[in-house]
TrEMBL record:
Keywords: Extracellular matrix, Lyase, Metal-binding, Secreted, Zinc. It comes from Adineta steineri. This is carbonic anhydrase. Belongs to the alpha-carbonic anhydrase family. It is found in: Secreted, Extracellular space, Extracellular matrix. Its EC number is 4.2.1.1. Its cofactor is Zn(2+). GO terms for cellular component: cytoplasm. It is an enzyme of class 4 (lyase). Residues 85-350 form the Alpha-carbonic anhydrase domain.
Length: 351
């Protein structure tokens, strides 16, 4: 039974009746018959049911449609979660916990790093006929920073990268490194069963298709980024090309510390193997949250070297800020666990 003034509903008959009082929306709201709350009057007891201000989530009909919608909404969902959620390489917040800290990672299937076997990769002759062009000015690298997860070198000097598995043009964004607590671990990719002591990542972004690096990262399209992975061996003497950079590390010991450096301190090309035309390539993701699946990976066949002393210098960086009085806090292990291929093919440019 609905009263004439539509302010209440009477449920029941005789003495077994309950009055449900309805409170209409304000007159300035468009849907006048949508009530923000319902008051159930039971004599000595009143129960008020309020309408939530939050939109009701829509449940996907299938796993496939849920993954599709996840991709469409990724830009909106990931930005606030990245700023609100903490991650690192510890037991509590490390790679094995990232899918709990960021539940959207559970839907991702084409993640990095991976295990690569030469005899299981597929030779692609087109790669050999389409060599890399990697052109970068000496002033390409300008800023050295401790991100709390690694060191990072960035800059906006001239760079032009194309060739290999891509036709688009790319520009240098930043490079960083991954390492372990000892010389038997450290690299993210494992090639033919061997995990190297460290791995350098040179990150470039697609300037042909995207206006900003952020747009390229969020694209979730393989090739938004192209990341060059350089595996690192231990050599008897220091790598002279890394010396000038490592000498600056005492100035960025703590998380958040950042310095500018001279244009001739480091050369990108000197951080890569002499032969950059022999490599493995596959479609994957960033190896740090939000692990966007927007990367075309280039894993060079040949390696570069650092001395034991130089790799130990990496382990002197801290993941803590200067205000943190902890005696420890060193970044001793910052690589992600291996991810399944899930049907992907790894191609190689060499026989």
């Amino acid at each position: 039974m609905l009263d004439d003034d539509t302010s209440s509903i009477i449920v029941g008959a005789g003495n077994n009746r309950i009055a449900i009082n309805l409170k209409p929306l304000r007159t300035d709201q468009t849907q006048s018959m949508m009530f923000p709350s319902v008051l159930i009057d039971m004599g000595d007891i009143e129960i008020e049911i309020r309408r939530t201000n939050k939109p009701t989530p829509v449940r996907s009909k299938s796993v496939a449609s849920r993954m599709y919608e996840h991709g469409k909404q990724k830009k909106i969902e990931e930005k606030p979660k990245t700023s609100q959620s903490y991650w690192d390489y510890s037991t509590l917040h490390g790679p094995n916990m990232w899918s709990r800290i960021f539940p959207q990672l559970q839907c991702k299937k084409f993640q990095s790093p991976i295990r690569i076997y030469t005899d299981q990769s597929e030779y692609e002759s087109v790669l050999a006929r389409h060599p890399f062009i990697f052109d970068a000015d000496e002033n390409c690298c300008q800023i050295l920073e401790n991100t709390g997860h690694s060191f990072q070198v960035s800059g906006n000097g001239y760079s032009y990268i194309t060739g290999g598995p891509v036709l688009d043009e790319y520009q240098f964004l930043q490079f960083h490194m991954h390492w372990g607590s000892n010389d038997n671990e450290g690299s993210e990719h494992v090639v033919d069963g061997i995990r190297s002591p460290a791995e350098l990542h040179i990150v470039t972004w697609n300037t042909s298709k995207y206006k900003t690096p952020q747009e390229a990262v969020a694209s979730e399209e393989f090739g938004g980024l192209m990341v060059f992975a350089v595996l690192i061996n231990i050599i008897p003497t220091d790598n002279i090309h890394m010396d000038k950079l490592l000498e600056l590390f005492p100035k960025i010991t703590h998380k958040g510390e950042k310095i500018n450096f001279d244009y001739n301190t480091i050369s990108l090309r000197n951080l890569m193997p002499e032969n950059i035309q022999d490599y493995y390539t596959y479609d994957g993701s960033l190896t740090t949250p939000m692990c966007n699946e927007s990367v075309r990976w280039i894993v060079f066949r040949d390696k570069i070297g650092l001395s034991k002393q130089q790799i130990n210098q990496l382990r002197q960086l801290k993941h803590t800020c200067t205000s943190d009085k902890s005696m420890n806090g060193y970044i001793t292990r910052n690589y992600r666990s291996l991810m399944p291929l899930n049907g992907r093919i790894v191609y190689r440019s060499f026989r």
